[in-house]
TrEMBL record:
<dbReference type="InterPro" id="IPR015943">
    <property type="entry name" value="WD40/YVTN_repeat-like_dom_sf"/>
</dbReference>
<dbReference type="InterPro" id="IPR011110">
    <property type="entry name" value="Reg_prop"/>
</dbReference>
<dbReference type="Pfam" id="PF07494">
    <property type="entry name" value="Reg_prop"/>
</dbReference>
<protein>
    <submittedName>
        <fullName>Two component regulator with propeller domain</fullName>
    </submittedName>
</protein>
Amino acid sequence: MIKYLFSRHIIYSLLILVFYISCNGQVKTKPTDHLKNTDTITIGTPKLVKTQGSGVSHNVHCSLKDTQGNLWFGTTGEGVYRYDGKLFTQFTIGLSTNSVGAILEDKSGNIWFGTDDGLYKFNGKEIVAVPFDKINSRVTILSMMQRENGTLWFGTNKGVYRYKENVFSAFLNNESILNSDSLHLKNTESMLEDKNGNIWFGSYVGEGISFFDGKTLARLKPNVTIKHFGYVRVPSIMEDSAGFIWFGTSDGAFRFDGKELTKIGKKEGINSVYTIVEDKNGNFWFSTESITGQIDYTGGVWRFDGKSFTQFTTKDRLVHNAVFSIVEDNDGNLWFGTRNTGLSKYDGENFTTFSE
């Protein structure tokens, strides 16, 4: 079922440090439950309105711009929202849980949702579950990607799976893979296919950064000191327009040039980087989480123009300093998903709040 939502009021965000995998208080819905939500519609600026009773520890965890220009926002307590430039539409019917940690559009225009209770697909009309074959226990989908050859890949709490012609296969079940570091790829939180066809994996905990070159799966051996590198969390991997690979980690942002790994923003004290995005002007944006949730030096969003850094926080009218997701719309605006299911838009000069 779809709801068109309008704003009721704006509140300041609070915070507790909660990761997607271990979110407590996640709200589950059934079709009959969703029918009970009869919110009063008030005229005003379209906003992301909470209807499922999520608390201050929930967040807008992931985001996507589809080929039609719609923006999608996955939350850890309110299901999924779609923004068409005018209205927010909330989707919960068809999902067995309101905790959505990954969103992907495939080459056919289907929208996929990775949740803490399995995999779902929106075909333009309805959301349907896509069950994992031969896996009877609960599967948490942490990351998704589609390779150039059309194969879908899913990073889960049970390892990495490939999906082709409606069949799932465990990536590491391929006997031809040389797994030189005995990696299991469980809890793979981020994945990327680079322009050379290499596959990169970022671990939630335990295996750091690894890559597959088509024959060998191996860990990336850092040339810089990274605290507890084998246990560093890697929630995001991206390739920039120049071909450099960037990693957002629990120890900050790193850039890989094919030979060396460089920590970016070390002097500025940038840490706990969840998402890295390159905008159309070539600027890099880092979403970070402050430890206390208050206005401090490590929270908010950072912009890097290649030479200098600019920090944006609640002092600049960002809705919350704990920022998890970033997406750029067709007009060049940046949208930031935050703690307490917050959402801010930045037009290059000002922040506008699009949440309660």
